[in-house]
Q: What sequence folds into this?
């Protein structure tokens, strides 16, 4: 004898598929959030490296100036180089700010998925 089908079995199956799909979407949103957070950490580490590099160069140039090993033209060039490094740091900071906005959006996506 065949197993009896209840009328609500179709509804139960639909709910199960919907639940599984929601769980899949949530996992995907959480994975995207984690990737963006990792990218932010990498950007911040790069900024720290850039700052340390600029400070080391500034110290090196200052020591050369104190010893009289740099001409006036070399001092001007060194100062221009340090200013360019500072501009690159500022650009990296703006990139980090943009990444913060991306993370906020991913967090909203995760919250929306949890509510559904």
A:
């Amino acid at each position: 004898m065949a197993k009896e089908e209840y009328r609500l079995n179709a509804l139960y199956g639909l709910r199960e598929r919907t639940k599984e799909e929601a769980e899949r979407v949530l996992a995907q949103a959480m994975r995207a959030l984690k990737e963006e957070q990792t990218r932010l950490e990498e950007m911040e580490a790069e900024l720290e490296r850039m700052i340390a590099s600029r400070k080391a160069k500034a110290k090196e140039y200052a020591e050369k100036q104190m010893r009289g090993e740099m001409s006036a033209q070399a001092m001007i060039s060194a100062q221009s180089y340090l200013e360019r490094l500072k501009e690159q740091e500022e650009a990296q900071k703006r990139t980090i700010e943009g990444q913060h906005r991306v993370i906020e959006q991913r967090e909203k996506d995760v919250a929306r998925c949890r509510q559904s």
User: Anything to note?
Assistant: The longest helix spans residues 9-67. The chain is about 90% helix and 0% strand.
